[in-house]
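Researcher: Sequence recovery benchmark, item below. Answer with residues only.
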């Protein structure tokens, strides 16, 4: 079973940037489709970005043009580069190995002045 640990969250001002990392152990991520999800207070968890084992990506409409998901199989890590952050992006961000339903513990992103 793959284990996932997110990092890189924090407090940023509107318009700022953050890069989230999801480090995997117990398995190599090259065999998995990976996703980034987020859950804001009082809302359901939603898919933000998805990347296949082959590197194809897709995004929620709300983050298209601002967020980029990528993977570095050699480092066994998936990234989420977040630019042009908005207060509406405030949430706990989670990564997931799709096929096996493995979640990380989450990392909090707060966008505020």
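Model:
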């Amino acid at each position: 079973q793959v284990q996932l640990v997110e990092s890189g969250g924090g407090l940023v001002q509107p318009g700022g940037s953050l890069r989230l990392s999801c480090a995997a152990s117990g398995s190599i991520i090259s065999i998995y489709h990976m996703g980034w999800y987020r859950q804001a207070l009082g809302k359901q968890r939603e898919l933000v970005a998805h990347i296949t084992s082959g590197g194809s990506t897709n995004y929620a409409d709300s983050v298209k043009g601002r967020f980029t998901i990528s993977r570095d199989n050699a480092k066994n890590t998936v990234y989420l580069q977040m630019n042009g952050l908005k207060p509406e992006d405030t949430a706990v961000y989670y990564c997931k190995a799709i096929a096996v339903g493995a979640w990380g513990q989450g990392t909090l992103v707060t966008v505020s002045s």
